[in-house]
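Q: What changes when zinc ion is included in the input?
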Amino acid sequence: MTGRQDLVYRVESDPGWGTIAAGTARVSLHPDETAPEVIVVSGPCPRCGHETVHAEPLVSYANALGASGLLSRLLLRRAAETGSREVEVICACPAIHPDAGEHKGCGASWVLHVEWGV
Ligand SMILES: [Zn+2]
Ligand SMILES: [Zn+2]
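A: The predicted holo structure follows.
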């Protein structure tokens, strides 16, 4: 897929992109599928067509709260048990889109439903 670099950067979301991305995205769970800590989604952006990678931390809020030891393990277990997550992917393709300024990608975002351990 070649992609459309001429697309002007615009913060935009379209439910249809999630449907497209569901068919093209590659999802991997780290460190493993039974207790994922990070979801990595990669694949072509449904708007501009460039390859993009998104990492969704499942346990970032545990660190944000300053939780340590037991509490963060409890939060981690709860996150793992949930077994699904709506991941908002934001295009971060390496292309320089017009009007992007400091931003990466083309501005598109879409939601991907990810499940594990089912
Ligand atoms: Zn792009
Ligand atoms: Zn894009």
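Observations recorded in class: The chain has one domain: 12-112.
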